[in-house]
Structures are given as structure tokens and as C-alpha cells.
Predict the 3D structure of the following.
Amino acid sequence: MSVTAATDSSDARAGLSLALPALMLFIGVVVIPLVMTVMLSFHDWGQYKGIEPVFILKNWIEIFDDPYYAEMFWRTFRVAVLATLITAVFGVPEAYILNRMQGRWKGLFLLVIIGPLLISVVARTLGWALLFGGNNGLANKLLMTVGLIDSPVRFMFTETGMIIALAHAMMPFMVLAVWTALQRLDPQVENAALSLGAGSLTVVRRIVLPQIMPGVLSGAIIVFSLSASAFATPAIIGGRRLKVAATLAYDEFLNTLNWPLGAAVAVLLLIALVLIVVGSNALIERRYQEMFR
Amino acid sequence: MSFLELDRVGKSFGPNTAVEEFSLAVSKGEFVSFLGPSGCGKTTTLQMIAGFLDPSHGAIRLEGKDLVAVPPARRGLGIVFQSYALFPHMTAAENVAFGLEMRKVSRREREERVSSALALVGLAGYEDRHPRRMSGGQQQRVALARALVIRPSVLLLDEPLSNLDARLREDMQIELRQIQRNLGTTTILVTHDQIEAMSLSDRIVVMSKGRIEQIGTPQQVYEQPASAFVAQFLGKTNEFSATVDRVSGQPRLVAGTWSAPAPAGVAGPVTVSVRPERISFGNAGLAGRITSRIFQGNHWLFQCDTECGPAIVIRQNDGQSQPEQGAAVHLVWQASDMSLRAARAAA
């Protein structure tokens, strides 16, 4: 849609008219609802009077004053960061191993990794709920048999369980991002480092990791933003009491029916995510500017 | 004893044989090229020397010691890859210093050796550049400096110049040869470019389909090619079949109406091979007609039809007038300018 680049005005008009249908769709289904949500967050609401289309800051003041909301947002942030860390710690080696596999095995394991994306996230999370299930859940039994823990750990309705289930649900995004970065690597670079006397661990640490770092970071941005705005997993594992921003907004809309407050929560989540994603993206680009010019 | 020795080395990938019975002895300080078309096994052989591939059979020895059991990180060889394989996240100096760091060379000595290696390849002042901000030729030099700075026992070059443009390639050839001469590093170059192989090497190993076709100095492989493949791969050549006949007691090479005295020890059907630049136009000799002539600056390229088939002739542009297209000519050459091979029965 770079209208400015076109020197010929008729070219520009042709470009614009070609882009128009998509533009209208974008405005119709994204921009307008978004603007309406933002406007909604400034409306008033009362138990008996319902929504009043006036402009007040009541909802925003409530969110910033009541520590209840701060707690929700911190939990959202904490859960998303930890889930991102876990996907990075497991996803990077996973992608590296996958990349080193030969032909048929590579295809098979790629399918195994992407496969979960084909199953509804609700079904996957219910699977985790079954594994966690109280003190006699499969996960606890296994951990106790192996001897990693002495007494059962609470997974259901805890942040721990939420983080584990989220990390699992988001793993494909991290693996794919890292894998893409690995494929851009010159396969001879590792050999070059070997020939210069580096051990295979040094090769991974000094040569491979720094080069795929942008891939890891962009995977992290995807996983973080999806985790922070995830709804199904926190709703099922966290239950109705352990809320995150997304489930909070849902409850305000559908349980309390306080739409304006729910809209304010949703808008705040959106703004926070956009700031974090754009900010970290800019940082990454600055950091790796030299390398990828 | 030779410095680097390959003893009947072979490599197969499943049912496919990439290299067969490769035997070669390289002496210290020698510059040897593996020359052949792609898929001839030259890179596979280099990778076996480097240790990235294990030979299926045979032995590789460096100074009499078995090399196959040594992991690539301990072989102490310098390798320049076709893609240069520089570390893109490190500066030129960091790239060159990497091998020294791995060898736990002290910081001071490291800095000294890095800057002298970069100076050697003409890149003093480029220490802090990242590879992506350097031209192909400069990246090439960094790769060379990185391989040389560890003072390798053998320098392995895998098509190092093939990604450069023609002009730069010539400059780098001269420079590479000078650096190699000055340092006296035993060097093995893999290339598909016959001119590169001839201008750089002490000896050339011509390979085809996993086999060695000929080992010899550039002059030997060019002027006495051991096979039709070698003759055709190294420069242009004219080939035609002839037979040895006894005409009035004297053995003579005969092809149609053309004949010449046969050298001693040649019998039966043979293939005659003559380089186009050795042929001149004379009054008697192989009769033919010029079908086209092409001016190429410093020389003329003629295509002729003769009774022994098409032939090409190259004449220096020395100011003499040259025959026109369509002119009837006789192709003449010295007996010493042709090389003879017994013709294969199937051919």
C-alpha cells in the first residue's frame, strides 16, 4: 500500500482501488469494533440503569486504584514471562535437534511438534486438567514415583499448572521461530568453528546461539503476547478464582455484565501488550542491526 | 616420507560411490589442486581430509600419523569454505581471533597475530567490520586470514574464489599464490576452474566420477593428457581418430588423405589430440575450410570443417592478415604438439 512511492498518480489510484476491499474489511472488522471498545470503556454502568453512553473516567480510575486489578495484571505478566522462558529453554534445543535430523525423521518430528496446533486449545488444556487432576493426578503420581517430590503438588487452580499448560500450548510457535532461524544458518559455519579447534558445546554456545538469538527473541515475543492474552488455558486451569486479564475481562462482560469495565480491562491489556511487543522489537532490531544489515 | 598421504581412500554413500581408491602423496610446502566437474568427488575428498566425513576405507596420514581417528577440532588444519562460513555475529578481528582463543593463546599474542594476519591479506584497518558489511572479496580475505592465523599444517581451500567476479578472482589468485609461497604452507585447493588450478598449483589431480584421471604438473596434464576426459576438461582441444599404417616401410599416422610420421611405439587405432593454439595455417597438412571466424581481442578463433571432422584453431592477433570465412586452408602442427592415445574399442 505504499502510495507515496508511486510517481504516477493513476498508478497510485489503481493501487488504492485494488487495496480498497481489504482496507474496508480491515476497517469494518478491526478498527470500528476496536474504537467502539475504547469508547465503551469510558461509559458509565450501574446495576439497575445498565450502560449509559456518557464520557467518564470511572472505570479507568477503578482499575488503577483497586489493587485487585493490579494483582490480575501482574499475574498475567508473570505467567506469560515464565511460560515464555519455559518454551525457550525447551524449544531451542528441540529445534536444534530437529534441524539436525535427517530427511524422513525430520518430517515426522516436525509433524509431532506442529500436530498439537491442529487440536483445539480447549481439548489440549482439558488433557492437562486430566493429568493434573487433584492429588491423585497422573502427573503427581509420576513425579512421586520418580522421587522428584515427596508430597503431591497442587497443579489445578494454581499459577504453576497454568504456566505448564500454557508453555505446552505455545511450544510450537517457539520451535518454529527458532527452526526458521536455524535454517538460515550457513551449515558450513559449524564446520568452520570445529576446524578452528572448538568443541561441539563451544560451537553451540559461541557460534550457533548468538546467530539464532533473533529467532529465539521473535519466538519469545509471539509466545509472550499469545500467553498474556490467552483465555481458554487460564480459564480451565485457573478456574473462576485465579483470574488473568483475559478471563477478568470475560467475567466482567458476561457475569457481572459490567461491559464498560470489561472494555477498560481489555483495552489496557491491548495497550500493555502493544507497548511491550513494539518496545522489545525495537530493542532487538537495534541490537542485531550490525549482524543483519 | 611425504607430508600428507592419502592411501587408497574411498567413500561411498549407500550404494553410491563418491570417491574410489584415491591415493596421493603431498610433500611439505606443495600446492596441490583437485580439479574436476561438480560431483567428481573432489569436495568429498577434501572433507575427508578435514574430518567432516569419515572415509569408508583407506588411510589418511599426516607426517606419518593416522589422521582419520583425530576429530576435526584437533587436526589443526586451516579451511577456507566456498561460502566463507564467517561468523556473522563477530567482527573481522573476532573471526580471525576465534581459532587462537580456542588454542588458549594469550590475549596479547592473539592481538598481535590477528592484526598481522589481517595485514597479510591486505585488510589492516578492517578489524571492527562485521562480515555482512564487507564485499565478497573482503570476506574471502577474512576467511583466509582466519584459516592462516592458526598456522595450520595444511591449508584446505574449497572453491574459495568461485563466488568472486572474474577480475577479482584473477587478483586473488596471484595474491593467494604469493601468500602461500611466502608462508610455505602445504595447500590443497578444490576447484572446477582449470585456469585457477593451472595458475596456482605445483601439481593437479584431475578427477572424474570419483576417480583420479591424472596427477601431474599443470604442463603435464595440459600437454600430455592421460585421457580424453583430461584433454577436454583442461582447455579446448581438437581430437580425431587415426590409424597407424606402414607406408613404404615407414610407420605413418593416417586419417583420410592426411598423414604424418608416426612416433615410435604407437600401433593400431589411436586418438590424436591437438590444442587449437598449436595449429597454424600452411600450404600442406589437414585440408579444411573455415566456417566461421570470431575476433576475440588478443586472438582469433576459427572454426573449420576438415575431413576428420570439425576443428578449432586459435591464432594470436599479431597483426598478420588472417584467412577469411569460407577460405580453403591447410591445418599444420608440429609432431611434438600432438598427443596420441590408443583409441578405446567402444569409441
Remarks:
- Residues 166-183 of chain B form the longest helix (18 residues).
- Chain B is about 25% helix and 35% strand.
- Residues 126 and 290 of chain B are 55 Å apart (CA to CA).
